[in-house]
Amino acid sequence: MDRYQSFARSGLGRFVVGKLGLPDPYPLRRHSPARPPLDGPVLLGGGGRLVEPVRAVLKSIGLDVAAGQATDDRYGALVFDATGIDRTERLRELYEFFHPVIRSLGPCGRVVVLGTPPASAASRVAQRALEGFTRSVGKELKRGGTAQLVYVAEGAEGNVESTLRFLLSGRSAYVSGQVVDIDAGPVETPDDWSQPLAGKVALVTGAARGIGAAIAGVLGRDGAHVVCLDMPGQGDALSAVANRVNGSTVQLDLTSADAPARVVEHLTQRHGGVDVVVHNAGITRDRTLGRMDEGRWDAVVAVNLASQERVNQVLFDAGALRPNGRIIGVSSIAGIAGNVGQTNYATTKAGVIGLVDSLSALVDGTGTTVNAVAPGFIETKMTAAVPLVIREAGRRMNSLSQGGLPVDVAETIAWFAHPASAGVNGNVVRVCGQSLLGA
Questions:
Q1: CATH number of 31-182
Q2: Which of 30, 307, 341, 384 makes a 20 to 30 Å CA pair with 73?
Q3: Quick check: 367 and 326 in contact, CB under 8 A?
């Protein structure tokens, strides 16, 4: 429980927070099927090649598009097409669009800047500048606002819908300051956007509790049959999760020599293959390097990284991953920024990013994608046991001044898993509220 957040929302708390300039963890607006994606219209601007395709997507989502700038409105989102910014002088267009309206962004509002992979040296300078702009905006926004940069390749104009549906909604509540790349290629548009994984089979490892259980829940909500995998000792908890999502279970130690073959055999014999694989299983065995015994090192590497490599290899060798398949890893902010006492853990979580880099290049253009999430401070039983001072630092050292929830990680994974996200390949997206640590 975040007692500071409860205090900060009280009458006295608001006064103290405002007077002393303390962190203000505004309640985040998360996804609910009973609410519209945004509270307010979208202001769409810019003069690039994406304005009209994005306008059509916004209409498809059911979002209102404002007719023009009017600072007395409260916008739900500000979306700017910066694909036409091909030299430094044109960066002023960012200022001219955002300056009059940025303070009119409503609570939990969204800022999305759309860029393009550069075609020349001058455009490379200007397009790279968009990253500094967007990340700074994310740190300036208050009341739960977020900002993202999406680079859309030439020919990928029709591939933006799943990403915009994610970023312009409560599904991305704890994602901010991120850069997403969308490539060209065919996408599979679902018959029902509320059940995009209908008929799909998803494997979630480490599914018995915490983030893994949340992932199983969200993928099940989106229509998938979820195969929930965890250690034999987690049988009762694992069954409870599978029952909640109408899925099935596999009890297995992923570090055993025959585990990859047994997993793939189960998926092929029971389900005819698998569409989505989420490598969530992970452990911590923390010690500073000089005090870490080899058993702690070996156990973390075996579970967090080597098991993923081994399962992936057998999946590909057996052809068990169906066309338009998804492989999704769970990295960590520790794999980007490092962490005291976690050389083993950070090594494996950086290795997950390496897996994304290597495998995404191999599957590029096939419809299959490989991506990863990198969670920051997420409110779980594990983080609840962290000493108070460290726990509070983890919660406050991000642009949203609070910890995330397991569902925030799960929603990001569901976006990667979406059949219309075929253009989203090779991305590592931090679910960290734009943590002040790391890249």
A1: 3.40.50.720
A2: 30
A3: no
